[in-house]
């Protein structure tokens, strides 16, 4: 289970080496990344979520560099895309990979609305499908996915495993997979993974390691000790969804966004 002590953001992260957890200072601040996060194209609504999602600390933890070939899986409406696209535009590459269908249309609408900002962003599909545009094998330095593993889990464990295997193939040897996911405590019923939106840390690590990945670091950056993980409509009870509407809205707003694990995996170099 995750260590109950939540360290101050920007001061320390929990890093796993040889099965032991140690403390390590994050890399020095990246002015380009800070500028992308502070850029005026980001809406006030999206900026308001920074306090829960900690984009600068999270991306630094995953080792993002401006020269990287980055793949963002299932970007949704593009909350992180708004940050990654301008950051990588000059020296790197960003590919957004969505399933064929509505998700692809949602992110395409955002990219098409501002070609000056998003014109260099490449598009692909994930997972693999007949006739889909795929991320080439062995091409990515860094693959990122934010709050999506539970969506793959809804399709069954075989579907999750197949997804991790595809991610493994798209990364270069030594490449990194960065995952942020809603955290279900180990002591809670695993059946909640099938409908609540929360996933156990052991489950995510199990799928990743079965695909060949090695866990190298685990950070409490996006943890939220106010989250009790037992809401009537799962994780969507909390902001930003507020699925129950006005019912107990102030209570859920005070809790904030969900408790999240932040895991860094590597594809071992050959």
Note the main attributes of this structure.
alpha/beta; 10 strands; disordered N terminus; 270 residues; eight-stranded mixed sheet; Rossmann fold
How would you summarize the topology of this molecule?
Layout: E1 13-17, E2 20-24, H1 31-38, H2 44-47, H3 50-53, H4 55-61, E3 69-73, H5 81-88, E4 93-98, H6 102-113, H7 115-118, E5 122-125, E6 140-146, H8 149-153, H9 157-170, E7 171-184, E8 199-200, H10 201-210, E9 214-219, H11 249-255, E10 260-266
Parallel strand pairs: 3-4, 3-6, 4-5, 6-7, 7-8
Antiparallel strand pairs: 1-2, 7-10, 9-10
Helix pairs in contact: 1-5
Describe the structure.
This protein is of the alpha/beta class and 270 residues long. The chain has a single domain, classed as Rossmann fold (3-Layer(aba) Sandwich). Strands 3, 4, 5, 6, 7, 8, 9 and 10 form an eight-stranded mixed beta sheet that branches. A two-stranded antiparallel sheet has the order 1-2. Helix 1 packs across helix 5. The two termini are 31 Å apart. The N terminus is likely disordered.
